[in-house]
Specification:
single chain, alpha+beta, binds guanosine-5'-monophosphate, binds zinc ion
Length: 112
């Protein structure tokens, strides 16, 4: 998807502050952090939103979640929040599946 922002970031076409990369996953710092640590963890495969993930995406979605937890551990985060906004009404603005890893401050509940 050449017109997708996160496909272009994951491929290196658009620069970002890399946190983790392998052949299936890319993680990078959010450009407008909502917490002291705000990392976006994305599958390299283009999936527009979580609701579009099919049976064939089950493994990569699980891998991204497990990777987010590993990144949190590596960053020394004991308390953190992992968030997916699915659809505009939930706050999704970039339509390439991504998990927000937020930490470094106290979180409130429920989210807004
Ligand atoms: P969403 O609102 O779709 O759940 O999250 C999109 C996130 O992508 C936002 O937190 C926003 O700050 C971040 N973002 C948007 N454009 C860029 C960009 O060009 N680079 C980086 N690193 N983050 C971006
Ligand atoms: Zn994409």
């Amino acid at each position: 998807m050449s017109d997708c922002l996160f496909c272009r970031i994951a491929s290196g076409e658009i620069p970002s502050k890399k946190v983790y990369a392998d052949d299936r996953i890319y993680a990078f710092h959010d450009i407008a952090p909502k917490a002291p640590t705000h990392v976006l963890v994305v599958p390299r495969r283009h999936i527009a939103k979580l609701a579009d993930a099919g049976a064939e995406d089950r493994e990569i979605v699980g891998e991204v979640v497990a990777r987010a937890a590993a990144i949190a551990r590596d960053l020394g985060l004991e308390h953190y929040r992992l968030v997916v906004n699915n659809g505009e009404g939930a706050g999704q603005t970039v339509f390439h599946l991504h998990f927000h890893l937020l930490g470094g401050r106290t979180m409130t509940w429920p989210p807004g």
